[in-house]
Amino acid sequence: MPASVPACASLRRQVPISETWYNLASSINIGAFNLGNAIGAALGGAVIGAGLGYGWVSVAGAAMAGGGFILVVLTRKEATAQPSRPAT
Q1: Every domain of the chain and the residues it spans
Q2: End-to-end alpha-carbon separation of the chain, Å?
Q3: Separation CA 15–CA 31 (nearest Å)
Q4: Which of 33-38's residues contact partners 24+ apart within 8 Å by CB, and which partners?
């Protein structure tokens, strides 16, 4: 189970969103997890198929994780400060 699934469920309880949007977000989340598994398996197979050996599979995995981190950093949006509302 992807680590973000409990976070999605927690968000659903805290933020009132429609069932349709929650289902869409959940399916995209699981789909992205499965895509990552498939890409990782393909990369590992390519490394072994290239004759580099099993030791290089972990290096390729670490490179993928580093690339993912860089992608997150580059595409992260700055949080905008919400003006505080007066108490009612």
Answers
A1: 4-73
A2: 42
A3: 23
A4: 33/2
